[in-house]
Every structure is written in C-alpha cells, then in structure tokens.
Write a structure and sequence with these properties.
The protein has 246 residues and is mostly helical. It has helices at residues 2-19, 24-33, 38-59, 72-92, 96-119, 131-147, 152-162, 167-189, 197-220, 223-243. The protein has one domain.
Length: 246
C-alpha cells in the first residue's frame, strides 16, 4: 500500500517538475511516511527523481536554449559545479537551516515569476538579468538544488524568464538544467547508506512517466494558462510550507 502511494507521488512529482517544479515537496512527506528520516528522504528523493528529470529534459530538448549572449553550455557548467558543491555540503552538514529557508525561497521565486508574468504595465521596461547575473544566479540555485532541491524549478523559472527566455523555452531549459545539477549530487549520493533503493526505484518509475506527460503538456498548453498554473502551484506550496514546514 505504501509503495503504491510512493509510485503515485513519483507520478505527480514528475508531472509537476516538468511543468513548473516543486515535485520534491510531494515526495519528501510521502517518503517520510514510510519511516525514513528527513535526511534519508531528501537524499532518496533526489536519487529517485533524477531519471524523470533526465527524461523531461530529453523530451523537451528542442526548446532548450541559452539566454541571449549566454550560451547553454555556460548554464550547464554552472549547474554541474553548483550541484556538486551542494551535494558535498548536504553530506557534511545538517539540512535544518536550508529547510527553514525553503518557504521564503519559494515565496520569493513565486512573487518574482508572478510580477514578471502579470505585474508589468504596457510600455513599462522589464527588469532583466544580464549574462553574468544569469550565470551567477544559476550557480547559486544549483548549490541549493544539490543541497536540498525544493523549489529549484520556481527559482530557475524566475531567473530564466527575468533573463528574457519565453515561458516554454524557460520550462524546457529548466528541466534540462535540473537534471544536470542533480546528476552531480546523485553521483555523490549513490553510495550513501541513506538511499532506500526499493522506494527510490518505485518513486523513480512514477517520476519518469510523469515527466513524459509533463513534457508533452509543456509543448501544448496555453502560455497564459501555464503562467497562471505555475503561480497557483507556487502560492499553494508556500502556504503549505509556512503552515507545516518540512
């Protein structure tokens, strides 16, 4: 029964990660229900969701792009280095401080994304991140992603749209970069005794299916509807995390 719940959580998380992010907020509580500690649930979730992130990234690869003068390989490099650093930090320090910051980070990212989508008036100049700012922001997000990971989709969507990427390209690029940054962390976590492999395999299978469904929806969904859905998910996650922190 619990493994069925884990599979459904993986399916949901894979779909949500492909569209907007925040899938780990679904998987962490479910994994903890199976008896895992928060640290073990965090590491197991990262390992399990990785195949679904790779699947989503590959499925939407035609929409993946760099940002203006900043090529995609630079974002890729920032994600790899930041993800590895975040993974090292997680294995060597407690995650309590980052866990307390998660509601604020998700709130900030949701607010930035909502303002970028709906807050600007006609003729008003948009706030844009330049190439250096985008690269630095992606590196910091990757550190956080390798360490904890909750809300990285919202943070990347906020950063990439502020840098000028259209919503669909930002979503596909976010999926590709999420898989890359977590690859660094997963390489470190794979040998950790904190990984519960049975749950990871069941969760991962659901995440792969959900990621494929989400990637297909990303190419077809109405852009305004997608923006509204992302903001609504962000508000819901923020409220839930403030009411009952992970």
């Amino acid at each position: 029964m619990l493994m069925a719940l884990v599979f459904i959580a993986g399916l949901w998380a894979g779909l949500q990660n492909a569209l907007a992010g925040g899938g780990s907020f679904i998987t962490l509580p479910v994994l903890m229900l199976t008896g895992m500690t928060p640290l073990a649930a965090n590491i197991t979730s990262t390992v399990a969701l990785f195949p679904g992130q790779v699947t989503s990234g590959l499925a939407g690869r035609r929409l993946v792009s760099g940002v203006g003068a900043l090529p995609f390989w630079a974002l890729l490099l920032a994600s790899i280095l930041g993800g590895a650093l975040g993974g090292v930090l997680l294995l060597s320090t407690p995650s309590a401080i980052f866990a307390r910051l998660v509601p604020w980070l998700v709130l900030f990212a949701t607010a930035v994304f909502a303002w970028g989508s709906f807050g600007r008036r006609s003729g008003q100049s948009a706030v844009r991140l330049g190439p250096a700012g985008t690269a630095c922001t992606q590196f910091l997000i990757a550190i956080y992603g390798g360490y904890f990971g909750g809300g990285i989709g919202f943070l990347m969507m906020a950063a990439l749209t502020m840098a000028g990427l259209p919503i669909r390209n930002a979503g596909a690029t976010k999926n590709a970069l999420a898989g890359v940054m977590n690859a660094s962390a997963v390489a470190l976590f794979a040998a950790s005794p904190q990984v519960h492999w049975r749950a990871a395999l069941v969760l991962g299978a659901g995440a792969i299916i959900g990621g494929l469904l989400g990637s297909a929806a990303l190419r077809r969904v109405n852009e305004k509807a997608l923006r509204i859905a992302i903001v609504c998910i962000g508000i819901g996650l923020t409220v839930g995390l403030f009411v009952k922190p992970i």
